[in-house]
Structure formats: C-alpha cells, structure tokens
Amino acid sequence: MAHTDWMIRGPEIASCNCSYGCPCQFNALPTDGTCRAAVGIQIEKGHYGEVILDGLRLAATAAWPGPIHMGHGEIQPIVDERATPEQREALLKIMSGQDTEPGATFFQVFRSMCDTVHPPMFKKIDFKADMKSCDGHVSVPGVVEVKTEAIRNPVTGLPHHAKVSLRQGFEYTEAEYASGSTKSAGPIVLNTVGKHAHMAMLHITGQGVVR
Fold it and tell me: Is residue 102 part of a domain?
C-alpha cells in the first residue's frame, strides 16, 4: 500500500516529568521510572498529500507506566480548532504514525507504544517559543498548560543554556534544553514544576527527520 507523502516544519515545545536533560534522550531509563509528557507544535510549513497544513498547531499529552519502549501508554491528541475537516484528518493520521516508516518519527514510535488513544480534541492552541531565551508556552484552555524558561544556575541564578544534538534522533537534530512546568486537567493528569523541557525546530516526513 502506497504511503501519502507528508512533511511538517516548525517549532516544538516538549515538557516531561524527568530531571533536566531527560535520560530518555541518552537511551537511559526515565528519572522516576515513568514517563508523563506534553508537547506542542506550530507548523510553519507542512502538507499531507495535497492538503496544506501551514499555520496550524497540534498538541498532545501522554503517559507511560514505565519507560516508553516498554509500552502500555496512553495519549491524548489535540488538534487546532481552526483546521478544516481535511486538515484534521491529515494531522490525526500524521500523529497516529500512519504513512510513516516504522521507527522513523516520534509520532509513530509513541503511538505504537500506547494501548489507549483518547478521542481527539479540537481546541484553540496558543503557542509561543523563543529559542534564544527558552521562554515559551503551550496553552490549551481547560486541558493543558506548559510553560518553559531557561534553566537557572543554582548559585548565581543566571540562565544556563544547554543544547543537545542527536545524530540519529526520530524527533529533532538539535534542541535547546530548558526548565518546564506542566499542568493538565485530564484525561491524562500532569503536574510538574521545574522539570525537563526542550525546544526544537522540527523538520520531519514519513521517512524521518530531514537532516
């Protein structure tokens, strides 16, 4: 069966319950053994077949009882309320890992490690990401709020900026690491303050990260 060609490019904010750095990024086990996270993406340029996705946003909350690769997770997809029916269908297919080579994107990997996919929400998504200062937020009123800022030096209080590059990552080539705080109202409950966050410019297709 032929895959529909797709691409999205734009800034992403992700925040989880791990300590700064997130051991998962280094193929190590999560800080407390579990993974609970939220993500938001603003699509500056994108398409799914002939469907243009420019300017739309998407978000998700997710949780796993152990490391992601052990499975049994749950995920809540959230799609920009401004999307047309065709755009909604396209974004949900991308987020569910359809039309994607196995293991090629974090969408496909995360979805394949989930037992439960909650019904998609179509909501207003507010998004802002400043890669230089690490100030950012993802806001879906009544659902989830993510705020990021620079990690602070515990002695001087000055911003501490760290960047990580992944040669063979399925999400990004490089990302700014930050301090994130996340609160959600469910169905997946998140409540973290001063934990790992990262901000990256995504450029991905059904074949993986564009390098």
Answer: yes
